[in-house]
Design a protein that fits this description.
binds deoxyuridine-5'-triphosphate, binds magnesium ion, alpha+beta, 4-stranded antiparallel β-sheet, Deoxyuridine 5'-Triphosphate Nucleotidohydrolase, Chain A
């Protein structure tokens, strides 16, 4: 077993499909969304600005600002998938090029870097999430089973003296290693 995909346990009975390549020479394994999810348009940010203005001039409750903030941050689309690979390999998550063109969907972190030590980590079993922002003018509904991104396995290189730097054991993702 060199590298591949598995379904995380909480999705074991949800009928998910493992990532797949669609053409003979496709580099990327397409990932499907594990759930139906609505990605709101970021143009609602204007709404946030108005709220701020109202807050400062007319004392609108801070709670509504906080609610708007929660709605407007990038969404994490669950894939229900974890990936195993060799220690000197990485899985790169890249957007499908049709997503910005057809649906206004971008991956705000540019690419996702899935480390080999993310697999089966104690925090979330290594479930891969795709961060998504909708710059289009309409909200977008992602259906369960819809292809949202692609994963490319690659080898990576180490810098000289790499073994002299202290490392920690991965316990999760999205900031788990600290600031
Ligand atoms: O699009 C992504 C990017 C990352 N990850 C997971 C896998 C990766 O191994 C882990 C950490 O990613 P990264 O190192 O890029 O983020 P960080 O902000 O540095 O978090 P950490 O402190 O956990 O390393 O989060 C995803 O599921 N999707
Ligand atoms: Mg990191």
């Amino acid at each position: 077993m060199k590298r591949g995909f598995e379904i995380v346990s909480k999705y074991s009975s949800k009928n998910l499909t493992l990532p797949y390549r669609t053409t003979n020479n496709a580099a990327g394994y397409d990932f499907e969304s594990a759930e139906e999810i609505i990605i709101p348009s970021i143009w609602k940010l204007n709404f946030l600005k108005v709220l701020w203005a109202i807050k400062h001039e007319k004392n609108v409750q801070a709670a509504s600002i906080e609610k708007a903030r929660q709605v407007l941050k990038p969404f994490l689309i669950p894939t229900g998938i974890k990936a195993y690979m060799q220690p000197d390999e990485v899985l790169i998550i890249a957007n499908r090029s049709s997503n910005p063109l057809k649906r206004g969907l971008v991956i705000p972190n540019g690419i996702g870097v899935i480390d080999s030590d993310y697999y089966n980590n104690d925090g979330n079993e290594g479930e891969i999430f795709v961060q998504i922002l909708n710059f289009g003018i309409s909200d977008i509904k992602i259906q369960k089973g819809e292809r949202i991104a692609q994963g490319i396995f690659m080898p990576y290189l180490l810098a000289d003296q790499d073994d002299q730097q202290k490392k920690q054991t991965r316990s999760g993702g999205f900031g788990s290693s600290g600031k």
